[in-house]
Design brief:
61 residues, two-stranded antiparallel ribbon, 2 strands, 80% helix, rod-shaped
Amino acid sequence: NYMNLVMMQIQRVKWRVNALGSFEFLLCMELRECCATFHSTFSHGDSLYVNLNDLFSELKV
């Protein structure tokens, strides 16, 4: 039946959108970890050469 095929495709699209949302979250977490590593590498004691939150915000866009 044609309507069943349409409904199946709609469900597949919804599933893919949800999966991409989860994938985006994982990429965001990985980006945050990379920014934290960069921050710790280029900061010395109390002297911050790189602001972690600013860097993350700029790269996230």
